[in-house]
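Hi all, long-time lurker, first post. I run a small reading group and we've been trying to get comfortable going from sequence to structure in the token notation. Rather than ask abstract questions, I figured I'd post a concrete chain and ask someone more experienced to write out its structure so we can walk through it together at our next meeting. Sequence below, copied exactly:
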Amino acid sequence: MSDVNQSEIVSRGRGLLAVSPIAVFLLLYVATSLAVGDFYKMPLSIAFIAASLWALVTMRGGKVADRVNVFSRGAANGDILYMIWIFILAGSFSALAVGIGAVDATVDLALKVMPGWLVMPGLFLTACFISMSIGTSVGTIVALTPFASQIASDTGADAAMMVSVVLGGSFFGDNLSFISDTTIAATRYLGVKMNAKFKANLFIAVPAAVIALIVYTVLGGEATQIATPFHHINYLTMTPYLLVIVAAAAGLNVLCVLLLGIAGCLLVALTTTPVALIDMCTMMGDGIKGMSDLIIVTLLAAGLLEVISYNGGIRFIIQVMTRHISGTRGARTVIAVLVSLVNLCTANNTIAIITVGKVSADIARRFGLDPRLTAGVLDTCSCIVQCIIPYGAQTLLAAGLAHLSPVAFLPYHVYPAALALMVIISTMARYPRRYHRG
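-- Answer (accepted) --
Happy to help. Here is the structure in token form:
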């Protein structure tokens, strides 16, 4: 975090300069992509490099080495390096699982026993269940993205659409689970019990999930109507992949889940296939190489966001958003927008809640907002933003596993859109009434 006094008032000029790297990134990436008519042409890494250079140039005082150290401190954050470990192991496991036929066999079995129109809603419900069980979106994405990607390949469905179903379902549990970091952070700052926040949050998350299920059912009938030629299913090759799904649902640490999956793949390959050990090592190496671009983007994004925080950008956003609040609707809107903007600047929903948690609790007390629903909105809005930003760890991980661009999912985020709609309805219509006193 920044060494600058967190209570210091940030001037308008300094604040705008602090958040200007975000504008540089958006202008370079979005404007260029719109100009050429293709969001795949401009690499995210180039846009982040340009924004990072601008952030370092505009940093106040200090030698070049000192400024780079601030950037490097963000990139070397323990959470970021932990995610890179996940990227590396996920790339290895995914390549092995595909190489030995584990994913193909699992998909063949699923499509053989399940009507095509049920595939998408079934995938969404599975993602919801696993994420609720483990309290994190990352483990769910690791377990289900290769499955979703292969279903798309076998049925002719859009791969980005299928993987976006997994992303949406993974954040259902991230938002609601009792063991989710976001739930723990939100309830801690608002001073409410987890079960109280869970009950209030259900009024927002469940209707959104129902809307998503309806949409996925309609889309599923169209997306998976192409017949799939089934082959003889080698059930033994499925065991490593099913092992990963079961281990993830049981709440095992995601690194342990991936190591277990890799070990399972190696064991199955060595005992049932003619694939040599050196060939399996090559597969793993290729899988890691496939994640290299996403690892670079993760490091660049983390460093850039640390510089923005150091320069007072996040404090400036909080100042501006809390300056003019009137009425309960305005107060709830400010809390929702505040955590969303900070999440955009940190690419971490838990950190966003921690950053604005105290301010949100103060606003809730001043305007008589129900702390249970406020904690739910705080958690929900951070999860919405984290799900849709292309530089978030979850999207980068899903993109790497599915070999897609991180922006490919943007048109298909059904559940986050439904969740955002429910937050707006809750705020504007004072729904549910039992949690709205003002």
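A couple of things your group might point at:
Residues 194-223 form the longest helix (30 residues).
The CA atoms of residues 56 and 217 lie 48 Å apart.
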